[in-house]
Each structure stands twice: as C-alpha cells, then as structure tokens.
C-alpha cells in the first residue's frame, strides 16, 4: 500500500491552515505531507491508521502527527454508506516548522515544544483534560483570524508541552523523515537505527551515550517509558511494517531483514505490540 502525497492549499493571508472537514465520511486516502498535523474528530467512528499503528477512533479523538508520517481515518460502514443521521465531522490544523520564521523554534522557550514535535514523528494520541482543552481551542479557531488565531495555536503548544496523558502510535522506526534535536536522545536513537538489524547490547549503546550501563538503563526507562530491549523490538517491528506496507517482501524475509532470528519470537512479539498477527496486519494494509 503506497501512500500518496497530499497537499492542502494555504490562504495567502494566513501562516498555517485550520479547516473543518464535514460530510458523509472523511474522503482523504492513505497519505502523507510535509506539514505537522492535528486531527480532532468531533463526530464519527472508525479505524485510524498512523504509520504502522492500527486503532479505532470516536468523537473527541485527537492526534498530532509529524511531517511525512502516512495516515488515514477510515469511517465505519454506517458513515461510508451514508446511513448515519449525522455527518462525520473533524477539525484539522496543518503547520510547518517555519510557519512564523526560520529561527522561531531555535529560541530557548521552545525547547520543550521541540521534544514533543520530535515525538510526533510517531503520532501522538492526546488524551485526558489536555485533549478537551485543545479541542475547544481548535473548534474556536475555525472562526478566528489575525493575532487571535496565532495566539490560539501558541496556547495549544503550551498545553502539549506539559501534557502527561498521551500514547505514541507508530513504532519508533516506521518513519525516519524527522528532525531531531542534537542531544543524548539523538545519539541513542541514531546508534540504534544504524544497528537494529543485528545483535545490539546495552553496553554498546550506553558507551555511545557516555553512561554507565546501570545509569543508562535507569535513564532509558525514565525517558522512553519502556526498557531498552522493548524499544529495540518496537524499532524492528516498525521497520518490518514499513517493508510489508511498501515493498513486495514475504513476512519471513522482512522479519529476518529487521533483525529477528527466530520467527516464533517475532510472531509472539508482534502480536504483543500490535494486537494482531503479522499476516493479519499484512491483510489490513493490503486492503487499505
């Protein structure tokens, strides 16, 4: 399933895009684009695909996605067949990293926002009270203009910088077209991405980060919210899903390319992370 590039027209007097999508269903196919995107579902239910993540959405669902991350929202049949008494409804924001200037994201006040935007390369499902607050702002932005509209997106940025209730959707290695800050995180990620297809030890990565192994383990669990082994497994599965989605490779061939030496272990880990078997995932992406 090849994603297509999809671009929205930008108004000449506005630095970023806010629009309301309303109709019997959401028409956009499996696609990607160079902008960051917030998608808020006001009304409708269905299946959400973000990178190699497959989940379900309902009213109130809010996701932030980074540039080039393929995605699609597929409505349930009652919407696709135009049998629901209410239209599907979503509010969407598109913005680029330089939408108000080349250097704005380099100022110190934006350091925490940069970390969140880097995470959005995997897709962020925003939950809890932050989701409700952002939803109210986004729906009001449809009717705003000028500085009020600009102030609203900065209000959203402020909320996401301190949020704690969220899930990362796609596997770490599914989408590699992302901007990363020059930090210890970058060194760790880059080393893993260069070596995930072969055996990789804790000590190797700890040395790369200039940390003792025990210190590295504690740092990794705190920063990544999972163990090092779990993270490497997710990266391998993310690359597998990318190969299966875009290349004509068998499940067995793709699994070995991604560093799995035991097909039994691969099947077990895949189902644990994705909630389905590799063959079920392949059938899903082939259909969509």
TrEMBL record:
PROSITE patterns: HTH_ARAC_FAMILY_2. Pfam families: HTH_18. Keywords: DNA-binding, Transcription, Transcription regulation. SMART domains: HTH_ARAC. The keyword Manganese does not apply. Residues 186-284 form the HTH araC/xylS-type domain. It comes from the Bacteria. The keyword DNA-binding applies. InterPro entries: Homeodomain-like_sf, HTH_AraC, RmlC-like_jellyroll, RmlC_Cupin_sf, Tscrpt_reg_AraC-type_HTH. This is AraC family transcriptional regulator. It comes from Sphingobacterium hotanense. The lineage of its organism: Bacteria, Pseudomonadati, Bacteroidota, Sphingobacteriia, Sphingobacteriales.
